[in-house]
Amino acid sequence: MDMQGSRQLAVTQQQAWDALNDPAVLKACIPGCDKVEATGENQYAIAMALKIGPVSAKFTGKISLTEMNPPASYKLSFDGQGGVAGFGKGSAEVTLTPNDDGCELSYTVHASVGGKVAQLGQRLIDGAAKSMAEDFFKRFDEEMQRLHPESYAAKMVMGEVEADSPGTAAAAAGPSGIPLWVWVAGAAALAVAVWLGS
Prior knowledge:
Elements lengths: L1 E8 L3 H8 L2 H7 L3 E8 L2 E10 L2 E15 L3 E9 L5 E13 L2 E13 L1 H4 L2 H26 L1 H9 L22 H15 L4
Antiparallel strand pairs: 1-7, 2-3, 3-4, 4-5, 5-6, 6-7
Helix pairs in contact: 1-6, 2-4, 4-5, 4-6
């Protein structure tokens, strides 16, 4: 399975990078995420509950970050297990590009799944992965509005951003080294890999 996408953010490249490396932000933004914790340098453990069609399961996985070029890009590898529901693994590349409106977050995910999840069919898996990625981006954008209201207020005054939707409930915590795209790619990758669903 291959998936790619991008999203314009009103925050700066550095602000987006810092948030993508904050476990608390990522946990709040990844649908169904129960845990995101560091297990070593640029390595993380993640736990999430997912439902794809008739298959529901709790997945645990590992994410490793490589080729880090802060605050511009990185690559992540993921491996997730969901017991009898199946497994997922793959890689993702995440890039943050500054522009006049803030920065653009782009990602490319390559993933494969096995077990019951794989038997659901590519169309259902692709739909679940896309939905999860869109949900992550919506939550992440809302969290950026909460953490950096000044960036969004400036855009709203200029009529470039719609008023934000009802608040998001993510607690901010100090950076721990988990790039957003560990989560988008990890969420999209792990979620895509384990979708399952970087």
